Amino acid sequence: MRNDPRVTITVLDESNWYTHISIIGRVAELREDKDLVDIDRLSQQYLGKPYPRRDRRRFSAWIEIDRWHGWGTLKDTGQIG
Fold it and tell me: Deepest of 34, 41, 46, 80, by most Cβ within 10 A of its Cβ?
């Protein structure tokens, strides 16, 4: 990400993979999550407990969105770009 900050993130509807949204952008900020605050927040949200692997370095990437597109029920036929 430091050498090439372009990223794409795709999220699929678990019951219908045709329905998905993709976000295209670039990493605006990459920082180490030394105290595991960011990964713990995600883990609390989805697992209900702190992230269990405490022995690896973690990083958080903040992304500036250039464009997005959706398919299936998330399709936006009015978007340009």
Answer: 41
Q: Which residues contact 30 (CB under 8 A, 6 or more apart)?
A: 1, 2, 59, 60, 61, 62
Task: Render the chain in DSSP notation, one character per residue.
Answer: --S--EEEEEEEETTEEEEEEEEEEEEEEEEE-TT-HHHHHHHHHHHSS--S--SS--EEEEEEEEEEEEEGGG--TT---
For 11-42, the pLDDT digits (tens) are: 999 898 889 999 999 999 999 999 999 999 99
Task: Specify the pTM.
Answer: 0.68
Q: Where are the domains of the chain?
A: 6-74
